[in-house]
Amino acid sequence: MGVFDFAREAGAKIGIGDSKEEKAQAASEAAAKEAAVKAAARNKALKARKEASEAAQAKAKEAAQEEEKAARAQEVQRSESMERYLKTMGLGDVDVRIKDGKATIFGDAKDQATAERIILAVGNTQGVEQVNDYLKVAEPAEESDMYVVQSGDSLSKIAKEVYGDAMRYPEIFEANKPMLTDPDLIFPGQVLRIPAA
Prior knowledge:
The chain is of the alpha+beta class. The chain contains 4 helices and 5 strands; from the N terminus they run H-E-E-H-E-E-H-H-E. The strands form 2 sheets. A 3-stranded mixed beta sheet has the order 1-2-3.
């Protein structure tokens, strides 16, 4: 045999060699493969983020439900405690429901003074900002005025202001028993009954 000469570019026509077209095609295929790998990785990362987000949302929802359940249980406990408190004060057996700082009172009161004492006992409790009164009063009478204690107030100062006589402070004290146990123990923001002169 001998030595044969061939055209170098001719090999590309049958798929052998490094022609420009083959290099371009190989580069194109490599780029497409790399793009497909990157797209798959992006899709996988997006799916993982979506799943993590859904899991976080589910956990947040579950935590919110648990928090709401605990808050409801605490409100029930506060309501029951308030009912016991009113009983021990001799103000009767009433139904109290506390929710979101609002107390609703149902039941019977023997007279207007007792109804007002019940309302004040509930309303002057920390965490209660409003009282809805649905009490049935057996012996209705004129409602007392209400007074919000200010800083620096005393029962004698209040008596001087509303009755014109500081020595009438025992009337205010008696009107607010059993919530008040000492005429000197009042606090700013507290609401007191002021009986008619």
